Amino acid sequence: MNAIVDSEIESNNEAALQYLTFDLSGEVYGIGILNIREIIEYGDLTQVPMMPEFISGVINLRGSVVPVVNLAIRFQVSPQRRSKKTSVVIIEVVEDGSPIEIGIIVDEVREVMDLKAEQIAEPPTFGAAIRADFIKGMGKIDGQFMILLDVNNVLSVDELSVIQLERKAINPDTVKALDPDKDDQKMSELLAQQGPDSSDSLDAPQA
Amino acid sequence: MSNDAGLDEGAQVFAEEARELLEASEITLLKLEDAPTDVELIDELFRNVHTIKGSAGLFGYTKVVAFTHVAESVLDRVRDGEVPLDNMLISTLLGTRDQMEVLVEHAINQKELAPEDVSEGQRLVALLDQYLEIPGGDQLIETEKEVNDPENGLVVDGPLAGNKNWHISLRFEKGVLRDGMDPQSFFRYLSSLGDVVDIHTLEDELPAFAEMDCLDCYLGFEIALQSEASKSEIEDVFEFVQDECSIHILPPKAALSEYMALIDQLPESNLMLGEILVKSGALTEKELEQALLLQDAVRQASNSADLTSVAPIGEVIVEQGMVDKSTVEVALEKQTSDRQATQSTFQSIRVDAEKLSSLINVVGELAISSAHAELKSRSSGDDSLVEAIEVMSRLVDEVRDSTMSLRMVQIGDTFNRYKRVVRDLGNKTGKDVDLVISGGETELDKVVVEKLGDPLMHLIRNAADHGVESPEERTVAGKTGKACIMLSAYHDSGSIIIEIEDNGRGLNKEKILEKAIEKNLISSEKGLPDNEIYRLIFAPGFSTADAVTDISGRGVGMDVVKRNIDSLRGQIDVLSQPGAGTKFVIRLPLTLAIIDGFQVLVGDSSYVIPLDMVDECIELDNESANRKDGGDYVDLRGSVLPYIRLGQQFHERDRRTEPGHRDNIVVVKYAGKKAGLVVDDLLGEHQTVIKPLGPVFENLAGFSGATILGSGEVAMIIDVASLVGDVARLDKGRVNKAANNVH
């Protein structure tokens, strides 16, 4: 899988060094734009029972059923806050030679950045906040480090398809099949009452 | 079909045609075994083999042609009644068919034959040659041979041309290239019949360069061929283009008058043609002179005498060539009728599977949006709109049904393949086994049929190899000497059932237990019911056969079968009666892309249950819901109906505490059993397009896919059989655990 990505980098140097950056639980991450199909608004998510918790559900992407992954749970970082800016980034990964589309929930999409090869450092062998094999490299912009994700490991189908044999606790906070308008309305009411930090969490934190 | 990628279109058509014909030949051969004198079957077989040879020749697959030719010759003699079609010959011909398949596959993939394939081919040719050596004596054939024989055929008065070559005049029509015929391929095939001594290309028809259409063929050819082949064999070369070109074939040493006729018939100037004929060695200068003289003489005669009394030269020639012409006509007629017969058996259009699935997808979307439109029209209150939409959605339903049927194929063809397997196995093991097929007309999705081929093959081999006994054993056991394997298919409440049943010795329970304990599959045999014991044979690496034969018994069988069936979201079960036989039951869901669904609400989510599975809907009353014994079952008109709370099962929000909430039970039936699914609300019927869930959800049981509702939301489709099976297994584990804890 990595070999494919590497060869893409070699053959298409310019594009491979362009990264889409996004916010997730207060951290900035980057994904090579070659893997990205499109970015859509968050909403209308259908939960799939018995799947691992980081599979938030499935969405209808123009007639295809596409699984959506909650990266915050996958990375075991603090839960996401849902806002108007919450988006689903559709990413293409290659499984058994055929491409499949998987969505990830991000807090906010930032921009597409050009990174020169010398701006990308090797991933740290330890000490990172997320699993080392999720990191493809560290991008350095204005003296700040940004994690560049290895999507084929982050969205490894082998790991995503593991069935949750233990029954999940039913969490009443888990919201699915959102009506964005209503939610936004609810959200703004909440924001008005209690300030930004108390809006309800998108998904339950890892138990 | 993936191995066909990269083949050019023509070769691909050949590959498909050849495979189809080979398959048909196998079935015909097996039928012939029961009715060895059926003339129609023999003719059909001959036609198939002949067509394969012909088209292989077109593509220059010389190995296929050479081998098939021998088979064809033998079949020709069978057809003429010179060689009786006995079991020996049928076996040989079946082997020949297999070898043809090998040759065809190698030819289209442009691979070299393995040495064992080559020696098998030689062995078969030697066997077939024996049949060619049997002296035959049919009078009709003799005369036909005489006519075709260039040496003493055509008894025509007048001088004969001295050369020993066939002369062939070809004028292609313009469209020949567009129809995928390459003139070169005919020359290639011709050269397999003998030596092409000379080819003269006629380019007079070529228009000015500016007017030339590069897709048109403007050429004509004059060919001299040295060959031992008969005229009909040479005509066969051009069988595929005979409608699109004019062909004149002159045998060696034809009468000069025939050459003249030829020259007259062809559009080019006589003088030029004469030169070409001389050049190609068909005629010598002297012969040409003589011919021209002859023509003059005839002309003079016709001029001097009464014009009406002397037939024009063309007619004279035709008269002279009568013998041959009529034979040609008969032959042509026969070929045409042959071809019509072959075509009527395969009256179908080949469609790219990709195109079909995109059509099915669009029709699915159409069905959804039509359901949506119907809903909207009802709420609009506009009666004329409602009516219009209703008419439309009825049509949409029809379109949907006929589109779905496009992908459905009868399973009979697959079943028939196994007749051969059982026959060969029976011969090999000395058992007398009959394969009885029923329900061959049951239709299944083509994808399912293809994936079902291997597991079924395995089960049938097992049944023939291990399941049934030898005739001696059977007689001792008081059974008829002929064993029987039943293969049947039928529909059962939204599923398709395929059964493989033999009347053999049955499974050996003790042996299975012994083996299972030895392989650590179970710790002790205590308390296992019979059907659980039998099911152990599906465990990986399990085999009870004492001897590993080349047919089965390596222990990698049944678990693979089970995995294959699982991958089709089906189930397999085994029933056995010692001494009486074994029966495998395969249950497959109708994996159609579109089904009628029943939409229910569980928590906040919509789920869809296939409507075929739904029997009725009842209310879950308070008393049954809160049984003192904690059991999940209700009394359904006197019988016990166990139920599953989908809310708990799917971890949905519990709505039971909501005011005015009522639990509903959807009663589903599968495999003759009934179960209840407790849901929060019933939302009614819904046209359901099954969307695959993709590899991320490959391990998820209980769902057969997802669908998109009119609102655009995704709903999961419940796979009743696997869901209920899962829950039953979990329950059993729980009860067993509880029982163990008591001890």
- The portion of residues assigned to helices of chain B is 40-55%
Largest sheet of chain B: 5 strands, mixed
Q: How are strands sequenced across the largest beta sheet of chain A?
A: 8-1-2-11-10-9
Strand order of the largest sheet of chain B: 6-8-9-11-10
- In angstroms, what is the radius of gyration of chain A? 17 Å
- The overall pLDDT average of chain B reads 75
Topology:
The complex is a heterodimer of chains A (207) and B (743).
Chain A: H1 2-11, H2 13-16, E1 18-24, E2 27-32, E3 36-41, E4 55-61, E5 64-70, H3 71-75, E6 87-95, E7 98-106, E8 108-114, E9 120-121, E10 135-141, E11 144-149, H4 151-154, H5 157-160, H6 180-194
Parallel strand pairs in A: 2-11, 5-7
Antiparallel strand pairs in A: 1-2, 1-8, 3-6, 4-5, 6-7, 9-10, 10-11
Chain B: H1 9-34, H2 39-58, H3 62-79, H4 87-108, H5 115-133, H6 139-148, E1 166-172, H7 183-193, E2 194-202, E3 220-227, H8 231-237, E4 245-250, H9 256-265, H10 270-279, H11 285-304, H12 313-320, H13 322-345, H14 353-380, H15 383-406, E5 408-410, H16 412-429, E6 433-438, E7 443-445, H17 446-467, H18 471-476, E8 483-492, E9 495-502, H19 509-518, H20 530-535, H21 558-567, E10 571-577, E11 581-589, E12 594-602, E13 605-610, E14 614-619, H22 622-625, E15 633-636, E16 639-645, H23 646-649, E17 664-670, E18 673-679, E19 681-689, E20 703-708, E21 714-718, H24 720-742
Parallel strand pairs in B: 6-8, 13-21, 16-18
Antiparallel strand pairs in B: 1-3, 1-4, 2-3, 5-7, 8-9, 9-11, 10-11, 12-13, 12-19, 14-17, 15-16, 17-18, 20-21
Helix pairs in contact in B: 1-2, 1-4, 1-16, 2-3, 3-4, 3-5, 4-5, 9-11, 9-12, 14-15, 16-17, 17-21
Please provide a written account of the structure:
The complex is a heterodimer of chains A (207) and B (743). With 207 residues, chain A is α+β, with helices and mostly antiparallel strands. Chain A has one domain (2-198): CheA-289, Domain 4 (OB fold (Dihydrolipoamide Acetyltransferase, E2P)). Chain A has helices at 2-11, 13-16, 71-75, 151-154, 157-160, 180-194; strands spanning 18-24, 27-32, 36-41, 55-61, 64-70, 87-95, 98-106, 108-114, 120-121, 135-141, 144-149. Chain A has a 6-stranded mixed β-sheet. In chain A, strands 3-6-7-5-4 form a 5-stranded mixed β-sheet. The longest helix of chain A is centred in the last third of the chain and has 15 residues, at 180-194. The model of chain A is unreliable at 1-15 and 166-207 (pLDDT under 50). Chain B has 743 residues and is of the alpha+beta class. Chain B has 5 domains: 2-137, Up-down Bundle (Four Helix Bundle (Hemerythrin (Met), subunit A)); 149-343, no CATH class; 353-407; 409-589, Heat Shock Protein 90 (2-Layer Sandwich); 594-742, CheA-289, Domain 4 (OB fold (Dihydrolipoamide Acetyltransferase, E2P)), CATH 2.40.50. Chain B contains 24 helices and 21 strands. In chain B, the strands form 5 sheets. In chain B, strands 6-8-9-11-10 form a 5-stranded mixed β-sheet. In chain B, strands 19-12-13-21-20 form a 5-stranded mixed β-sheet. In chain B, strand 10 (571-577) and strand 11 form a beta hairpin. Chain B is flat, with a radius of gyration of 36 Å. The chains are: A alpha+beta (207), B alpha+beta (743). The A-B interface holds A 44, 46-51, 55, 57-60, 63-67, 95-96, 100, 102, 157, 160-163, 167-168, 170, 172, 176-177 and B 361, 365, 604-605, 649-654, 691-703, 705-706, 708, 712-716.
